[in-house]
Each structure stands twice: as structure tokens, then as C-alpha cells.
Write a structure and sequence with these properties.
By secondary structure, this protein is of the alpha/beta class. The chain is built from five helices and eleven strands. A five-stranded parallel β-sheet has the order 1-10-9-2-4. Helix 5 links the parallel strand 9 and strand 10. The termini are far apart.
Length: 200
């Protein structure tokens, strides 16, 4: 018995780091990386569609939806009802610098994005959460946000929702191809108290 104990202890210690890692989500329709444009690829390489997210979020208490759009987007365009937190990865430039090539106002990275996500994950509001589904408008900003969180060492399994809240554009430029709203999943315009943790 005394010979087995050290071996068993070494084996248990070797497995210990795995205990804190979340298991991969059981996806009915996994998204292949080679089906995505470069702008939607992430370092972790974990992808999910809006339609699949609806099921996953309803079936798994350890999975939370993180909306990384600006608070004004969530108020004016709406956001998924099951969103756990809205912490912006980018915000509109307060000076409204214009990007003529894309026909949009410039967006700036929100300076403490990773810090606020880390603080929220450590709070009672996120107790038991070990996996985040990150959502933006259509899947590019969420991919960049996932990479920023990965680089910052955030302790969570990070999935990027590849079609986001509004979805991809059709040939006419309308976002009605896919996405949370187009999947018929629940959403609202009404901002609830605490949606942006620590700000209201």
C-alpha cells in the first residue's frame, strides 16, 4: 500500500489542473474554423452559432452570455434576454471621428475591458460560470474580444458567437441571414439594472 500511495498521489496531482477546465460544449452543429472569414477566427478556436447558443444557455448553468457591444447598441438595437453581462469591448469615439471608407464612426477599444470581465467573473453574480459565449453584432468584434480575454489570461472557456445578435448581411446589405434576432430567440430593448456590472 505504501508503494501505491505515492504513485496515486502523483497521478492525482497530474490531473489536478484539468479539474478547473470546463469541458467542451456538446454542440449539435459545430462550426468549423475553415468555414469562417479571418475576421471571425479566434486563438482558442471555439465557435458557436446564435441558434445553438439558445439551447446551450438554457441547458447549462455554467455557461453565460457576455455581450461585448457598446451599451448604446444594446439599448437602441436590443440584446438577448439571457445576457448575463454587457461589458463593451469597443465604444464609439466620443469625438465621432468618421471612417469614410467604411461609412461609420470610428470605434475605440474600451480601456478596461479584460479587467472588468475578470472582476465580473470573480463576483457572486457569476458564481459557477466557467464558460462564456461572447456575442457582438455579427461575430467579428466577439472574436477580437475572445482573443483579448485569452491574452489577458481570463480563466474561462471562451466561445465566439459567429453570427452575433444581428447576423450577417444578405446581398442587399440587410442583416437578416442569421444571428440571435433572426433565429427567433428572446430579446429585449429594456436595459435591466446591473446589465453593465459596476456601472449602474
Amino acid at each position: 500500500m505504501t508503494r501505491i500511495a505515492p504513485t496515486l498521489l502523483a497521478f492525482m496531482l497530474a490531473l489536478a489542473p484539468l479539474a478547473g477546465q470546463a469541458a467542451a460544449l456538446d454542440l449539435a452543429q459545430p462550426v468549423a474554423a475553415d468555414s469562417l472569414p479571418d475576421s471571425k477566427l479566434t486563438d482558442p478556436g471555439l465557435y458557436i452559432t446564435a441558434a445553438e447558443s439558445g439551447r446551450v444557455l438554457s441547458e447549462n448553468d455554467n455557461v453565460a452570455l457576455l455581450d461585448v457591444r457598446s451599451p448604446s447598441e444594446t439599448m437602441l438595437i436590443g440584446y438577448p434576454t439571457p445576457t448575463a453581462a454587457n461589458i463593451p469591448f469597443k465604444i464609439v469615439d466620443p469625438d465621432l471621428a468618421f471612417n469614410a471608407e467604411e461609412g461609420v464612426y470610428k470605434m475605440l477599444e474600451y480601456p478596461d475591458f479584460s479587467g472588468e470581465v475578470t472582476a465580473w467573473l470573480a463576483s457572486d453574480a457569476a458564481k459557477g460560470i466557467d464558460t462564456l459565449v461572447v456575442i457582438c453584432r455579427s461575430g467579428s468584434r466577439s472574436a477580437s474580444a475572445v482573443d483579448a480575454l485569452t491574452k489577458a489570461g481570463v480563466d474561462a472557456t471562451l466561445y465566439s458567437m459567429v453570427d452575433g445578435f444581428e447576423g450577417d448581411k444578405n446581398d442587399a446589405g440587410t442583416r437578416d441571414v442569421n444571428g440571435w434576432r433572426n433565429a427567433g430567440l428572446p430579446w429585449t430593448y429594456k436595459i435591466r439594472e446591473g446589465l453593465w456590472p459596476g456601472h449602474h
